[in-house]
Amino acid sequence: MTDVNNLTDAFLLAYASLFPIVNPIRNAPIFLGLTREYTEKERNALALRVTGNSFFLLLGAPPVRLFPAWPASPKVTPANRRRRASG
Questions:
Q1: Could you count the other beta carbons within 10 Å of the beta carbon of residue 79?
Q2: Domain coordinates of the chain in residue numbers?
Q3: Are 46 and 38 in contact (CB under 8 A)?
Q4: Which helix (H) or strand (E) holds 15?
Q5: What is the pTM of this model?
Q6: If we measure between CA atoms, which residue out of 66, 28, 68 comes closest to residue 47?
Q7: DSSP string for residues in 18-62
Q8: What is the pLDDT of residue 33?
């Protein structure tokens, strides 16, 4: 039962923190304006694709933080600059 409570708490925390960022109430008119020429069927299909892509991006975000995108770059210090300039 504790696992279910932890999962529920995590979901509610994520939902509550992402809702103001995504702001679907404010973005709905923008989406409708950009898809004005689309049929209702095309608009629904596009909305479903956007929802699915967003869901998978959110799932992939935590594992991405475990692996840095680029190897650590050498730090540039005044001593390194002098070595490069003289050598």
A1: 8
A2: 2-66
A3: yes
A4: helix 2-22
A5: 0.52
A6: 28
A7: HHHHH-HHHHHHHHHHHTTTS-HHHHHHHHHHHHHHHHHHHHHHH
A8: 94
Question: Residues with Cβ < 8 Å from 80, sequence gap 6 or more?
Answer: 74
What CA–CA distance (Å, rounded) separates 69 from 72?
A: 9
Tokens 């998978």 identify what position? 56
Instruction: Say how far apart CA 85 and CA 87 lie, in whole Å.
Output: 6
| 3-class DSSP state of 70 | coil
pLDDT at 48: 93
Per-residue pLDDT of the chain (87 residues; tens, 9 = 90+): 677 788 788 778 877 877 787 788 898 899 999 999 999 999 999 999 988 887 777 666 555 555 555 555 556 566 655 665 565
Residue type, 28: A
Q: Where do we find the tokens 């509550």? A: 16
Residue with tokens 């509610």: 12
